Amino acid sequence: MLDDLVNRYRDRCLWFLRSDYLPETRQEAEAVLDLIERYGDRDAFFAVREARQWLSRDTNVPFSDSSPVSGRPVESDT
Fold it and tell me: Is the pLDDT of residue 62 over 90?
């Protein structure tokens, strides 16, 4: 979900970040959401609100353990 949002608004709101940048921590995700909210359009504003609600659903799970945030599978040692 978050990766899709970053990619959708990369050219308009995140042009100064690396072209392959994707947030990997909750802090990075919040920073990127702030930028998209600030520099995006009305649709971006509502998409950010939805993403924040999604991120806040399970605040007890570490960011790296919540693979849907990044869209990448989480590898475990078990």
Answer: no
